[in-house]
Write a structure and sequence with these properties.
This protein has 4 helices and 5 strands. It has about 110 residues and is α+β, with helices and mostly antiparallel strands. It has a single domain, classed as Alpha-Beta Plaits, CATH 3.30.70.100.
Length: about 110
Amino acid sequence: MQRMGMMIGLKAGAVDEYKRLHAAVWPEILAKISECHITNYSIFLKEPENLLFGYWEYVGVDFEGDMKTMADDPRTRDWWAVCSPCQQPVSTRAEGEWWAKMESVFHLD
């Protein structure tokens, strides 16, 4: 199992829309996340900075393959198309990242 954290900003005025979308995530999206071996997925919001922190646990054996499966899914791309306009990537993210990956520095079971 691999714990993963990431962050992104929300655009000014997009907080309510983002919360509305995530209060009723499409069932196909939830199923695809599970199919791609992601568990314990949570997104936290820090206001007034409008920063999102995402956390999940990856329990599969081929992360890149599972992420490709997710990215190739038409319904997932539809979901991203409605969520992405709300988001504002952080300027310090790595090349090719939308959500900036974060280093795990501590964990306690």
